[in-house]
Specification:
The complex is a heterodimer of chains A (373) and B (295). Chain A folds into two domains: 220 residues, Rossmann fold (3-Layer(aba) Sandwich); 130 residues, Nucleic acid-binding proteins (OB fold (Dihydrolipoamide Acetyltransferase, E2P)), CATH 2.40.50. In chain A, the strands form five sheets. In chain A, strands 6-7-8-3-9-10 form a six-stranded mixed β-sheet, sandwiched between helices. A five-stranded antiparallel β-sheet of chain A has the order 13-12-11-14-20. A four-stranded antiparallel β-sheet of chain A has the order 2-1-4-5, covered by helices on one side. With 373 residues, chain A is of the alpha+beta class. In chain A, strand 12 and strand 13 form a beta hairpin. Helix content of chain B is 71%, strand content 0%. Chain B is built from 15 helices and no strands. In chain B, helix 3 crosses helix 15 and helix 4 runs antiparallel to helix 14. The chains are: A alpha+beta (373), B mainly alpha (295).
């Protein structure tokens, strides 16, 4: 149990800055997911917390104690690596117990704790095997057991599920969540998979190009993305984004060849700047009136389908009911509810906090349509 | 490239048999010659059939060339070279691969360049150093104080002198480096997270993981050390430190003496045996260590 504070942390390799001043704080026992595309610096940040990477400037404190100069073993962190990094020549028991062996824990005590830990992750029958004789999921469990046995203050996960097949990933995701509920240790989980991020996180940190784009609860981020990047990164299929202009005098938004009347006051507040309008595919509704689009192709999901098309040159996707009879080439009329429009300043990329129409009480309960990848 | 036609089969077998005979031929000559009597070995044509005099001939060769001492010396020398080389290579490669130091590249290339300088090329300077280790210090003292200090400190006629220059080469370092590079970085990081320091990581992880590598290098180095001829010839004047390769000369029939080639051949057979045994025992790992990495 430990809280973590990251203050103005920067990292550069030679002259190339990869992290541009990160400020974050995580409460004790929180499950934090850091999400971002590859190369955004999320793994670097994690490795800096672990102590595997030097901190160029700024400081990281665990439990109020600055750890910049501490060796990894002195920080009380345990890490699960993407490729598991098991010791290939040791048995499962040897792998799990190595940290204790290094720490000089007596053998009987060590064996007892190895068995205890193996039981937690369901590996009791495999203690004598070498990693090469295990399946991917079992190796992952060994890696987790190796972290658990040290009873660390902080668990660090570096994309631990990305080497597993889709089905196993879902299972392991649930197991990691259960494990966290049981151990209640502060956990930081790095991933580029938004489904993992949404399902696991108490607190979600979205990173891009070395800066933190948004921090918050997963659903808040889904419903109120703070920037164009977050809007397009979270949600699958991605949010539809259009460049738009505001006609202040006549109070309407013009985008994608359509015009939408908006409240006078809102129009004035928006002013005549360039904006980007976003709407999630799952919020588009098939209706008698609205924008008319020609279906290019259809993705079947079983529980529904996604129709892909174009709106005035912008790619456009909409999730529709599985019962809707539609084929490529058909025309479909979709209503884009103002209540679910997201507005962004095109220049800065930041969200403009205006609700064009109050959302119904029901809209927040609508589950994000995320597909297990 | 798998073709199954009678002609191709015949051709491949022909090539294989030719190669086999080429390699085994001299060995057959040695084995059969070493087991024949003085008359038989000098008969024309030479008979390739082994006879029953092998052990008598070996005994004669053993006492003539004083092979007991020589074999022991060679064994000590080859073992020291092997042990020294393996441990030095493992450690230098460890330093080069796993530590981030500013001059890492420089050191690696310095070591690497010596690959191109086998002992035979640098034999004169190496001998000069081994014959007078104190020279640099003496030069320094005379330059600073003007005194000529005479200290006799050399490695001639010693096991140190026999082995040290052979240990200081880069082949093993290079082999180990290539192996270490195949290990994922996460392995070292995981060990660090588990609290293991550098030395502990070396002992607990690298040594066991590089076992096949180590045995391959052992095989190569033992044979290399055993077969040294030029260097012992230079370093050793005292018969106490004579190695087997030097004793081979003593086995040759002298110009005007009896041409007892059977004894000479029996002696070479004895000298051949230890490396043969080492290779035979270690060849399984030898091949594995060079070809695949066990991960």
């Amino acid at each position: 149990m430990a809280d973590i504070a990251i203050r103005a942390v920067r990292k550069s390799y030679g002259k190339n800055p990869t992290l541009h001043g990160i400020d974050l704080s995580f409460a004790s026992g929180e499950f934090v997911v850091i999400l971002g595309p590859s190369g955004c610096g999320k793994s670097t940040l994690l490795r800096m917390i672990a102590g595997l990477e030097e901190i160029t400037s700024g400081e990281i404190a665990i439990n109020g104690k600055v750890v910049n100069r501490l060796e990894p073993r002195e920080r009380g962190c345990a890490m699960v690596f993407q490729n598991y990094a098991l010791y290939p020549h040791m048995t499962v028991a040897g792998n799990i117990g190595y940290a204790l062996k290094v720490a000089g824990v007596p053998k009987t005590e060590r064996l007892r704790r190895i068995e205890e830990t193996a039981k937690i992750v369901g590996l009791s029958d495999y203690l004598d095997r070498k990693p090469a004789a295990l399946s991917g999921g079992q190796r992952q469990r060994v890696a987790m057991a190796r972290a658990i046995i040290r009873e660390p203050n902080v668990f660090l996960f570096d994309e631990p599920l990305s080497n597993l097949d889709a089905k196993l990933r879902v299972t392991m995701r649930a197991e990691i969540r259960k494990l966290h509920q049981r151990l209640q240790a502060t956990s930081i989980f790095v991933t580029h998979d938004q489904v993992e991020a949404m399902t696991l996180a108490d607190k979600l940190v979205v990173m891009n190009k070395g800066v933190v784009e948004q921090v918050g609860q997963p659903l808040d981020i889904y419903h109120r993305p703070a920037s164009i990047f977050v809007a397009s990164f979270i949600g699958s299929p991605a949010m539809n984004l259009f460049d738009a202009t505001v006609d202040v005098e006549n109070a309407y938004l013009a985008f994608g060849g359509t015009k939408m009347s908006i409240n006078n006051g809102h129009a004035v507040r928006l002013g005549s700047r360039q904006i980007t309008v976003g709407i999630r595919p799952e919020q588009c509704v098939v209706a008698p009136d609205g924008v008319s689009i020609k279906v290019d192709f259809i993705e079947e999901l079983g529980s529904g389908r996604i129709i892909h098309s174009e709106l005035n040159g912008y790619p456009f996707a909409a999730s529709v009911d599985e019962h809707l009879r539609v084929r490529p080439g058909d025309r479909v009329t979709l209503k884009l509810p103002l209540a679910h429009m997201h507005l962004f300043d095109k220049e800065t990329g930041r969200r403009i906090e205006i609700d064009l129409e109050p959302r119904g009480t029901g809209s927040f309960s609508s589950q994000p349509a995320l597909q297990a990848v | 490239m798998i073709q199954r036609t009678p002609f191709a089969n015949a051709l491949t077998y022909g090539v294989m048999i030719f190669g086999f005979l080429l390699l085994i031929g001299p060995f057959i000559v040695i084995v059969s010659g070493a087991s024949q009597t003085f008359q038989q070995v000098n008969a024309i044509p030479f008979s390739f059939v082994p006879q029953d005099r092998l052990f008598e001939n070996m005994g004669a060769a053993w006492s003539r060339a004083n092979l007991g001492t020589a074999m022991l010396n060679s064994f000590i020398m080859a073992s020291l070279v092997t042990v020294g080389k393996v441990s030095l290579s493992a450690l230098t490669a460890f330093a080069i691969v796993f530590f981030r130091t500013p001059l890492k590249g420089f050191f690696f290339w310095m070591v690497f360049i010596t690959l191109m300088l086998p002992l035979e090329v640098r034999v004169v300077p190496t001998y000069a150093v081994a014959a007078d280790l104190f020279q640099p210090i003496r030069l320094l003292i005379s330059a600073v104080t003007g005194f000529e200090v005479s200290v006799d400190w050399n490695l001639l006629n010693s096991y140190t002198g026999l082995t040290l220059p052979l240990i200081a080469t880069a082949t093993g370092t290079f082999l180990y480096r290539q192996f270490y590079l195949t290990l994922p970085d996460e392995l070292a990081e995981a060990a660090r997270m588990d609290g293991s320091g550098a030395i502990r990581f070396f002992i607990d992880m690298l040594l066991p993981l590089s076992r096949t590598n180590m045995l391959a290098l052992t095989t190569i180095m033992f044979v290399y050390g055993w077969n040294q001829y030029l260097w012992p010839l230079l370093m050793v004047t005292d018969p106490q430190y004579k190695t087997t390769m030097m004793s081979l000369v003593a086995l040759l029939p002298s110009d005007n003496g009896t041409p007892d080639w059977n004894v000479t051949l029996a002696g070479s057979l004895i000298i051949m045996l230890p490396p043969l045994v080492v290779v035979a025992v270690l060849q399984r790992w030898f091949v594995r260590g060079l070809v695949a990495t066990e991960k």
